[in-house]
Specification:
Belongs to the OsmC/Ohr family. This protein is of the alpha+beta class. The radius of gyration is 17 Å and the shape is globular.
Length: about 150
């Protein structure tokens, strides 16, 4: 694992109370969310979000920004692009849980081959992708670009 002695560009911090059925709050109080356990996991499917949704949201936004950076370098117009990240929690208590992720990108006006190459390049520079490489199965998909 690489180590760094660099000064952080930005630091984020959040605290959890009550685990999956509690709440999370960021250190700057800009994000305060109730958490609920989904029914599929034996929970009450309450009104709160869950760690998988938060993980998917953060990675989707980060990946989309990486994709926009790659697109700028390649002179691609991705103004109307969208990135959807789906997190599947697989496994169980006996074997342990793992994530499987699908990253879908819609890049209207960009041919599928170029779009897929841009996704691959973004996957190389996105901090979430880099942090999870080799630990999470990831599938990259270019969705219908004609919409």
């Amino acid at each position: 694992m690489p180590t760094t002695t660099s000064t952080p560009v930005y630091t984020a911090s959040a605290t959890s109370w009550g685990g999956r059925s509690g709440k999370v709050v960021t250190s700057d109080n800009k994000l305060e969310l109730d958490l609920s356990i989904p029914a599929e996991m034996g929970g009450d499917n309450g009104p709160g979000t869950n760690p998988e949704q938060l993980f998917a949201s953060g990675w989707a936004a980060c990946f989309h920004n990486a994709l926009k950076g790659v697109a700028r370098q390649q002179k691609l117009d991705v103004a109307d692009s969208a990135v959807t990240l789906t997190v599947n929690l697989v496994g169980g208590m006996a074997t342990g849980f793992d994530f499987e992720v699908t990253i879908e990108a819609q890049l209207p006006g960009v041919d599928p081959e170029t779009a897929h190459a841009a996704l691959e390049a973004a996957h190389q520079v996105c901090p979430y992708s880099r942090a999870t490489r080799g630990n999470i199965a990831v599938t990259l998909v270019v969705t219908d670009n004609e919409e």
